[in-house]
Design goal:
about 950 residues; alpha/beta; 26 helices; about 15% strand; 27 strands
Length: about 950
């Protein structure tokens, strides 16, 4: 009998390992692993997958070497090594590679415990109980083997859930003899010799694996319990039963406490804290003190499908399997499922599938920013823990990513006295094996105007693709339809998204693995982009675009930069410098520009003495009290100091006066404060999120019939991505100005842009800049369109234009057309297609970008036809909010299934035990 078991033990070890190694080294390695490693080097597959595959192959390889060198004539030790070390390690690698995703504290504890137990068992297997002189090692063995007892029972229980139905399934399938048909079809095909031996090895490996899997629960439990018992018995012999029991009990209690405490997932507390809106400032302050816990909970809920195998609610595969294979009733199956859920709780989410959307919404409302933007590192790490491909469109997760290298950058300035034509020419090289989009959000001086955009595959100007000025909604619609991974074709889109704000997107940047074929035209390996604009000169020279946000694009010391054909050593980590110095002193001059329809724009330079401060003016201050404003208390205090200094806080209407309107998030009450000296920024609770349209609506509901000379909405950079409405236009009783403390936003929604233009308002980063511009514009008269960048811009009919010493010019028509659109937007109600088409016609004639007209680069007839259809549609000016949110592809839930018909029962059982191999093969084929 002993000889029988010795042969059996050696047969199990050697047959499984030899089958596996033959299949790996003659099948998987040459056909799958090599391409997989090449794809990893090219960045197509995360490194973690290849490293885990290496470990998966290394475990049986090293185990075979150890078995042949040290355990060749020790069959009992050989089978102990196989079931106690090799099989658990192999299974652990499989689970980590294909099932377990981003680790949580609970799953990390369990995996560390398993690893400790495997190492401890291996140590006991080869070296036994430590000598008495090594006291510390003996105590360590006692502790680790206590854990081994726990793990042996735990692992056996988990595996037992699958082993019983699998045994029934294998017996049923074998007795059907359906597998003989597939075997005969292979044997009867003379061209399938390679397929035959690979299939045979795979079949044998699968049969061995399934058989071993059925036996594993009882064998693993017996071996680990026996090993733990021997070590604890020896420890009790040396130190006494009392110390042994005390030590083992302490380890068990420590493990149990840690295990139970880590089951408390943080989302439950976060949801409970935000379940009801706070009723007063005290409640808000209390909730704010829990911000870190709320953040942890909401992020955990949002990423639950990446951190957990399933939710408890959706996990029903054990119940379905036992009902179908063993015929258990629904109640018994549910009870088994509940027991299974308890043991698998470290890997199960304690919530529902709807929690991710709920967490995303609550995060935006509480933290005043999108979760993907604020938690980019956590979201990106979770995605990389699975093989999930991000969208090709540059979104919030791509902010500051380094995927496309700015290889070269050239700036050319053509000076024309006090104004200039500026050309920016850049070359992009993709550093990834997938097509990418580059995204710039930037600002220009308010009077500047963009005059051109081109794309090219080379630096050949004659072959570059030209732009077309199109209605903003139509241009956006066509561009977004072309941003795709399949059959990517070059488009580029340049939009004005605020008084100073622009958004540039270009796609596709060719991947870094483009293959060239002899006899065919060279395929593009880089993208070339040209952008031109006109700008008025300043004392320091010519203002450059000011970068607000970039996605995918990056630059370094190797980026070649030239300015007016002269190489420059640009050491700053910036896209562009603030100014290009002028060749000489810029002398502001008076210009008159005649446009069609008898319109004339007069550009008059202003000196410092031409600016005036408000006198006898009453302004409304609409204060944003959302959470992010709490980061700008210093700037807010400085704003209040300036208002006090210039007579806005003394309640004397003959001087200046200001009323304060505190805007608040939902379920709170907005306030009006006529004496702004009562307001103390440092004692204000900044909470939640609120959008500009909502602030203005609250202001209108509180102001009554109070008349104002200007309305100043004081906010920070804001959260354009959280805008809920792009069309809502809130009326303002006076010019609306947006004062952004700490920096300008990346964009405004079109409703706010229209409010700014309809009222003749503007944007500024400081109230000290805005109020002198407001006062000066009022003093110069109604014909002034704007006071900006050191000039006053007048719009007049030619017969009404005053005589001057200036000479009419056509060179400044683009700059003048920019002001004409701004001036007409105040006079014309832009709430119908006829008016919008008229405004767009101006931008199209003078080939400029405006808030209503965008530049789109097209390269083929299909795109031109799409644009023609979009321009004819009634929604051609309806632009959608580009929130940058990526629709993440959630991993499959391996524990969710439906009760199948009787003909499909084998699928469930096969999934239960062979799920890992199935996923493995499918992954390799991909």
């Amino acid at each position: 009998m002993k000889a029988f078991w010795n042969v059996t033990f050696e047969g199990i070890f050697w047959l499984w390992n030899l089958n596996f190694l033959t299949l790996v080294y003659f099948g998987i390695l040459p056909w799958v692993a090599v391409p997989l490693f090449q794809a990893t080097l090219q960045g197509q597959i995360p490194v973690e997958f290849s490293l885990t595959l290496v470990a998966l192959i290394a475990v049986p390889t090293i185990s075979t070497i150890i078995g042949g060198k040290f355990l060749l004539f020790q069959p009992l030790q050989l089978i102990r090594f196989f079931y106690g070390v090799e099989a658990p390690l192999f299974l652990l690698c499989l689970l980590r590679l294909f099932v377990i995703r981003e680790l949580t504290p609970a799953s990390t504890q369990l995996l560390i415990t398993i690893s400790i137990c495997i190492v401890a068992f291996c140590g006991e297997l080869f070296w036994g109980y430590a000598p008495k002189r090594k006291n510390a090692l003996q105590w360590l063995q006692m502790a680790t083997h206590t854990l081994m007892l726990i793990f042996g029972i735990y692992a056996s229980v988990i595996l037992l859930f699958y082993a019983l139905p699998l045994a029934v399934f294998l017996l049923q399938q074998f007795l059907k003899f359906e597998w003989l048909g597939g075997l005969w079809s292979i044997l009867s095909d003379p061209h399938s010799f390679t397929l035959f031996w690979l299939s045979s090895l795979s079949f044998l490996l699968f049969i061995f694996s399934c058989t071993l899997f059925v036996l594993m629960p009882s064998v693993l439990a017996a071996m680990y319990l026996n090993s733990g018992y021997r070590i604890l018995k020896n420890f009790a012999r040396d130190y006494g039963n009392k110390k042994m029991l005390s030590g083992a009990t302490a380890v068990f209690i420590a493990f149990a406490i840690t295990f139970v405490s880590l089951q408390n997932q943080p989302q439950a507390l976060a949801f409970s804290l935000l379940a009801n809106s706070p009723k007063n400032e005290s409640d808000r302050q209390t909730i704010l003190t829990q911000s870190n816990k709320i953040r942890d909970g909401l992020v955990n809920a949002y990423l639950s499908s990446y951190r957990y195998l399933s939710s408890i609610e959706e996990n029903n595969h054990i119940s379905a399997m036992y009902q179908h294979v063993l015929g258990l009733d629904k109640s018994a199956g549910k009870n088994l499922q509940n027991i299974y859920n308890f043991f698998m709780s470290p890997f199960l989410y304690q919530g529902t599938s709807k929690d991710a959307d709920k967490a995303e919404k609550l995060y935006a409302e509480f933290f005043d920013t999108p979760i993907q933007k604020a938690e980019k590192i956590a979201v990106t790490h979770a995605i990389q823990s699975t093989f999930n491909q991000q969208e090709v469109k540059a979104g919030l997760l791509n902010i500051n990513d380094q995927k496309v290298w700015l290889a070269s950058q050239q700036v050319t300035v053509k000076e024309h006295g006090d104004w200039a034509d500026v050309e920016l020419y850049e070359v992009y090289k993709n550093q990834t094996p997938e097509v990418q989009e580059v995204f710039y959000s930037f600002s220009l001086p308010e009077s500047a105007v963009i005059t051109g955009l081109w794309l090219g595959d080379t630096n050949n100007l004659s072959k570059r693709f030209p732009f077309k000025v199109s209605p903003r909604g139509a241009a956006q619609k066509v561009y977004n339809s072309q941003v795709r991974r399949e059959r990517p074709v070059d488009p580029a889109l340049l939009e004005q998204v605020g008084p100073r704000h622009y958004r540039l997107r270009a796609f596709p940047i060719p991947p870094n693995n483009v293959q060239q074929f002899p006899g065919e035209a060279a395929r593009p390996t880089e993208m070339h982009l040209w952008l031109t604009y006109q700008v008025m000169g300043q004392e320091k020279g010519w203002l450059m675009p000011d970068l607000g946000e970039r996605r995918n694009i990056f630059w370094n010391n190797d980026t070649k930069r030239t300015r007016n054909n002269q190489a420059v050593n640009f050491k700053e980590d910036a896209w562009l410098e603030s100014f290009i110095p002028a060749s000489g002193k810029v002398q502001p001059a008076l210009h008159e520009v005649s446009l069609e329809n008898g319109d004339r724009i007069t550009i008059k330079p202003l000196s410092l003495k031409d600016y005036s401060l408000p006198q006898g003016k009453r302004i409304a201050l609409v204060l944003d009290t959302s959470r992010s404003m709490g980061n700008h208390l210093k700037e807010l205090s400085q704003t209040w100091d300036w208002l006090n200094k210039h007579g806005f806080a003394d309640k004397d209407l003959t001087n200046n006066d200001a009323d304060l309107y505190l805007s608040v998030p939902k379920d709170a009450t907005a306030k009006r404060i006529d004496d702004i000296q009562q307001f103390q920024p440092e004692k204000t609770i900044f909470y939640g999120t609120i959008q500009p349209q909502e602030m203005l609506t609250q202001f209108n509901s509180l102001r009554g019939d109070t008349a104002y000379d200007a309305v100043l909405l004081i906010s920070d950079e804001g959260s354009y991505e959280l805008s809920r409405s792009n069309k809502t236009v809130v009326n303002s009783p006076a010019p609306l100005w947006m004062i952004h403390l700490g920096g300008l936003p990346p964009a405004y929604n079109d409703g706010i842009i229209k409010s700014l233009q309809d009222t003749g308002g503007g944007v500024a980063e400081d109230i000290a800049e805005a109020l002198p511009r407001i006062a000066t514009k009022l003093a110069l008269g109604d014909s002034v369109v704007s006071v900006v960048d050191g000039y006053a811009w007048y719009l007049q009919q030619q017969e009404k234009a005053t005589a001057s010493n200036s000479q009419p010019t056509t060179d400044l028509q683009a700059l003048a057309a920019r002001q004409l659109i701004l001036g007409l937007s105040k006079k014309i109600k832009l709430d119908n297609l006829e008016s919008l088409d008229a405004i767009h016609a101006i931008a199209k004639k003078y080939e400029i970008v405006s808030p209503y007209s965008s530049m789109l680069v097209l390269v083929n007839e299909e795109q031109r036809q799409l644009l023609k259809e979009a321009e004819a549609a009634s929604d051609r000016f309806d632009r959608k909010i580009e929130n940058g949110k990526e629709d993440l592809t959630k991993p499959n839930n391996p524990f969710k299934t439906s009760i199948p018909e009787s003909s499909g029962g084998w699928i469930l059982c096969l999934s239960a035990a062979g799920m890992l191999m199935f996923v493995n093969r499918r992954k390799f084929r991909a």
